[in-house]
């Protein structure tokens, strides 16, 4: 009977902005308070250690939420004149909020000591993953708005062509809170795995 090893995680929260010095190890905590559940067991290997367990930040959907707010506000104003028209105007706003909630709640980014995993879906679960030692390139992208709020996009590539990143072999983590720390964690693990 195999025994599960220690799984430790670091959750990168939107409100928490820890500054880590170069070479400093990120503190980890055990499964009991990490938000990991037994349904995660299906895509974790025996004695695999989870280093990052996070979801996309709410800030990534600012545009959608602003548009939803405009529909809701307009719907409330129109409901003062004509209730049916006001309620019809509320529907797109409510649908947008539901879409954003679903996308954020049912999308998860895991970085383990061996793999990078993107898990999506509620009833149908889809996972995309790559082995850390197979990563040939890592790219981070952020705007001034997202940088000021501490989130960005991390793209890891399996293959690098002479013209740059290949289009088909990329794994993208969008709206990652504390993206610089997450990217640095991937770089350190990649260095350790490839340095063997």
Automatic annotation (TrEMBL):
Coiled coil: none annotated. Keywords: Membrane, Transmembrane, Transmembrane helix. Residues 105-185 form the YdbS-like PH domain. This is YdbS-like PH domain-containing protein. Residues 13-24 have a biased composition (Basic and acidic residues). Pfam families: bPH_2 (PF03703). InterPro entries: YdbS-like_PH (IPR005182). The chain crosses the membrane at residues 58-77, 83-102. Residues 1-41 are annotated as: Disordered. It comes from the Archaea.
